[in-house]
Amino acid sequence: MGGCRGPVLSGGWRIWGRAVEGPHNSVGADTTEALTATGCLPSEFRFSSSPTMENIRQLQAQFTRERDWNRFHQPRNLLLALVGEVGELSELFQWQGEVAEGLPGWSESQREALSHELSDVLIYLLELAEKCRVDLPQAVLAKMELNAKKYPASRVHGSAKKYTEYNADNGACSSTEPGLNA
Ligand SMILES: Nc1ccn([C@H]2C[C@H](O)[C@@H](COP(=O)(O)OP(=O)(O)OP(=O)(O)O)O2)c(=O)n1
Fold first, then answer.
1. Is residue 110 part of a domain?
2. In this predicted structure, which of 1-10, 60-69, 128-137, 168-177 has the lowest mean pLDDT?
3. Whether the CB of 120 sits within 6 Å of ligand 1
4. Distance of CA 89 from the midpoint of ligand 1 (Å)
């Protein structure tokens, strides 16, 4: 099964250090279930339902307040911190060549480092959005709606071209609606 996500625990499968709840919680699961539980079947991967973006915003706000760090956490500084963390995230993939979905062959410590860097990026992103007064959960829905209009599935299915290339090809995805070409 390729060992996508580390060793089996006595009560179930381990996903990056945490046990999986639910029907896969047994060592005797068949291979498909085991792959699903370890996240090796990409379509079966799910995030936990909590914490929400708002929960994380609150936790980081508390962390910052308790250290009297709001004096440092202005938008520009948060953006620079975010970019720094993106750099650290990039380092994990640097010189690796193409990396397959599920990261087969990555060690537990590499996966842990990845989860740390992704989390740092998210934490700074959410605080940046807060300090810029962007309601990110709503903003992301609105942006995804724009994306869907810009890239109609029927038009672009199977192609990774930028929408401007479709416009050049005959304009089917272009729009004069404000913000649609953002
Ligand atoms: N002024 C700061 C410093 C840290 N953090 C929080 C947000 C990030 O999640 C994490 C960043 O901490 P570090 O700057 O120590 O960076 P790393 O955790 O990436 O450590 P390293 O750079 O050693 O890998 O801590 C923060 O909110 N504000």
1. yes
2. 1-10
3. yes
4. 13
Phi first, then psi: what are they for 89, rounded to 5°? -65, -45
- Which protein residue's CA is at the shortest distance from atom 2 of ligand 1? 69
Are 64 and 125 members of one domain?
yes
Same domain (yes/no): 94, 66 = yes
| Residue 161 vs residue 94, higher pLDDT | 94
What's the CA-to-centroid distance between 122 and ligand 1, angstroms?
12
What's the 120 CA to ligand 1 centre distance in angstroms? 7
DSSP structure string for 129-178: HHHTT--HHHHHHHHHHHHHHHS-HHHHTT----HHHHHHHHSTT---ST
| Rounded-to-integer distance, Cα 33 and Cα 37, Å | 6
Number of domains in the chain: 3
**Is the CB of 88 inside a 6 Å radius of any atom of ligand 1?**
yes
Same domain flag for 123 and 142? no
pTM recorded for the entire structure:
0.75
Domain of 34, in residue numbers: 8-44
- Tell which atom from ligand 1 comes closest to the C-alpha of 117: 19
Segment 78-102, tens digit of pLDDT: 999 999 999 999 999 999 999 999 9
Q: Is the CB of 69 under 6 A from ligand 1?
A: yes
Q: Is residue 171 part of a domain?
A: yes
Asked if residue 1 is part of any domain, the answer here is no
